[in-house]
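Quick log. Single chain, no ligands specified.
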Amino acid sequence: MTAAVFFGCAFIAFGPALALYIFTIATDPLRVIFLIAGAFFWLVSLLLSSVFWYLVRVVTDNRDGQVQTYLLIFGVLLSVCIQELFRLAYYRLLKKASEGLKSINPEETAPSMRLLAYVSGLGFGIMSGVFSFVNTLSNSLGPGTVGIHGDSPQFFLNSAFMTLVIIMLHVFWGIVFFDGCEKNKWYVLLMVLLCHMLVSTQTLLSPHYGVNLVSAYIIMVLMGIWAFFAAGGSCRNLKLCLLCQDKDFLLYNQRSR
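-> predicted structure:
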């Protein structure tokens, strides 16, 4: 029963992300490298956030519970800010690398920033999802597998769906974020930051898993629509794609900008 729950939740959380990886990234070694680099940048941001949180816990170890709650919220917000700063740093690195490749060999076609935005976002999302899922499993250690410390019996299922939302949101955030950087629309970066903060803190503000999950899915759908148009999509090519009449596959055939 425990194994069935584990593999079922893992499939819900990582199935779509694995499918995206296999069909859009795994066949191109360069994209695999960019994916791993994106995951590494997210790991570094997590390391900095963890160091800060450890120092804060050491300093405020004897404080009351309310102070600890405020520090937890502040730590989550700081972690989100660090993640987005590293997303910006990764964009800058990829931009410099693309420009350097063009200067060395002008005839060589460099990967488009739209493609790199998708790959880096998936790298951020997969690594974030892995840590989220591992934390959930670590909290489940004990005599039972249903509910954690009095939580809802649907805790694991809700956690799996929330992990899926976070992975997909990172993909969409990456596309929108890079597009804002390319067009010098800095308010777009702020919108991504605020959206990331909202999704990350809503579980701290409300104990109702179902409500949080529904709101997160609504945000994911809205960000997905935004990312679709930011990546160059349109209602026309969406219709052609659904009818299997579009020969241009958006992520494979994007030209360098």
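Residues 143-150, 249-257 have pLDDT under 50 and may be disordered.
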